[in-house]
Amino acid sequence: MKAVYNLMAIELRRPSETRYDALVDDLREAILTGRYRPGERLVQDELAEAFGVSRIPLREALRRLEGEGLVLISPNRGAIVRPLGPKDVVDLYDVRLALESLALRRAAERYADLREPTARRHADARRAIESGSLGALIHLDRDFHAEMAAASDNAHLIAALGGHWSQIMRVMHAFLKVGTYTPAVWADHEAIADAVAHGDGDLAVGLLTAHLTNARDAILTQLRTKGEKL
Amino acid sequence: MKAVYNLMAIELRRPSETRYDALVDDLREAILTGRYRPGERLVQDELAEAFGVSRIPLREALRRLEGEGLVLISPNRGAIVRPLGPKDVVDLYDVRLALESLALRRAAERYADLREPTARRHADARRAIESGSLGALIHLDRDFHAEMAAASDNAHLIAALGGHWSQIMRVMHAFLKVGTYTPAVWADHEAIADAVAHGDGDLAVGLLTAHLTNARDAILTQLRTKGEKL
DNA sequence: CGGTTCTTGATTGTATACAATAGTTCGTCG
DNA sequence: CGACGAACTATTGTATACAATCAAGAACCG
Q: Chain-wide mean pLDDT for chain A?
């Protein structure tokens, strides 16, 4: 059970970042990408050795991810990756629509102009699709929505959406393993950015509603037909 | 620095509850009620001794509360109680309205009938007002909204609202120290419960919007005139 | 004196060690 | 042969101990 610490990896991060900070990011990413499967037990000793740390910062990271809803922890029983079903997808997208609608309205009131970075990401996304790097694609997608949230200038909204995107990204990763990514989403993004820049909150929300409904339904049909686990 | 552990307090809780679980609740309550002031440093050794535990479960509890937005933690610097200003009140109520509106619509779709427990709480609230137990009053208020959230049958929405209520309760506690509690809120609650029971989501949301706007404005004016810290 | 480096004390970060719990296996008895 | 229960094992929960970091003040130099 003695761990051979990965000395190199530790010092590649900026100095004042603690093991906890790095662990939260790494563990989250591992769960999002499906390296740890839904329902799988997360045994502390194993994880600690895998990440080259002791159980102390690891436990703190698990508590954090519990707060984000990525893992479930029961006393004296340990942590598992939270399993998600079709109802979770529906529920998540409901909450997401409510929060992001608010974000768009506030961003539109301030005439936030995100057209330039959105176009840039659109180009990046094309390249990511060609090279087949799904992970990068999802991060670009999230970045767009995160930037919209930031434009709302509401710290509590940003925090709430940040937590929810962990879950959304899990769903997306699972979907992209079996489904196909339609570049149309980036046209949607640009239309939304346009509406916000012109201060038209109603239009932006309408576009977002269609955008999310399409995405959700595509995911749900894939889930039903291929029966992929989340 | 040696702690004389409060042996009695430990076993008064249900057996399989860990020190972490108890700490989260106790620490949250202490922050909500203002026992630890906004901006105040939360030194781990001091807290550990005060609560009769070691720093390990304490640190985990702090991570949890960080996730709820009650404390801010910076690496190697420690935790402080997150200070809230007038803008936070506006932002919080914005997010709250978005989330609770969704909850009411879903609850109304299901014709959830919460009129009986709401009336019961109304009576309890009268007694709480007479006996001047503000803390109990706030908990009753939260319970109403929590039950509405639960009636939405959306686990992710419930979780999101649960986290937010920590913050809302902080604002309410601070407000009630200087402001007055108007029993009219319970008439609002009953009207909302009625609308939901009749399946009228639009009406329920309209009532909620007025309810929250009134509450928010009352808090804001109190803050501005008396300049109370949150 | 004003600014800069060094030292020190307080505090956080993390590893190790041990205690407590729950799940499991195996034996016993009906 | 199955139900019950007692050891055993794997794993979590928590305390202690020590290392790393930061903030503040002292010493130093211009």
A: 91
* C-alpha distance from residue A203 to each of A105, A214, B192 (Å): 10, 17, 30
- Residues 6+ away with beta carbon under 8 Å from B210: B188
pTM comes to 0.90
Q: What residues are paired with B74 via a beta bridge?
A: B78
CA torsion B79-A23-A32-A8 (nearest 10°) is 150
B44 contact A CB<8A: no
Let me know: does B24 contact B64? Beta carbons within 8 Å: yes
Averaged pLDDT, groups of 10, chain B, 230 residues long: 33 66 96 95 96 97 97 96 96 98 98 97 92 90 96 97 95 88 91 98 98 95 80
For residue A17, the distance in angstroms to the closest alpha carbon of chain B comes to: 7
CA–CA gap between residue A18 and residue A4 (Å, rounded): 19
Residues of A in contact with B155 (CB under 8 A): 88, 91
Neighbours of B17 (CB within 10 A): 12
Q: Cβ of residue B56 near strand D, that is under 7 Å?
A: yes
Q: Answer whether A75's CB lies under 8 Å from B18's CB.
A: yes
Interchain CB distance below 8 Å, A95 and B69: no
Radius of gyration of chain B, Cα coordinates, nearest whole angstrom: 19
Q: Give every CB contact of residue A191 below 8 A, 6+ residues apart in sequence.
A: A207
Using a CB–CB cutoff of 8 Å, tell me whether A154 touches chain B.
Answer: yes
Contacts of A163 in chain B (CB under 8 A): 67, 160
Q: What single DSSP character describes residue A79?
A: E
Handedness of CA B146, B147, B148, B154 (dihedral sign): positive
Contacts of A220 (CB under 8 A, 6+ apart): A86, A89, A90
* Cβ atoms of B61 and B50 closer than 8 Å: no
3-state secondary structure string, B94-134?
A: HHHHHHHHHHHHHHHHCCCCCHHHHHHHHHHHHHHHHCCCH
Tell me, yes or no, if B104 comes closer than 8 A to chain A by beta carbon.
no
Strand partners, A73: A79
Compute the distance between CA of residue B84 and CA of residue B88 in angstroms, rounded to an integer.
Answer: 6
